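Input (Type II toxin-antitoxin system PrlF family antitoxin):
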Amino acid sequence: MKITSQGQVTIPASIRKSLGLLPGDRVLFIKNDKGEIVIRKAQEDARDPVEEAASQFKLNMSADELMKLLRDDH
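Output:
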């Protein structure tokens, strides 16, 4: 398999079929205990763990207010 300059690869049709993957589906790449990468179909309601964590840190201030706070310009 060849990786494009944008880091993309084509999942072979036989693998897509065995996982039941359709256009627009999401997949997960998981590193197992042996150091191998396993591909799995993501559940429909699965959220990106980074987006999930980021959603916990909503700020109730503008970017200017945040910069002022970070710069300690009270």
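The chain has a mean pLDDT of 86.
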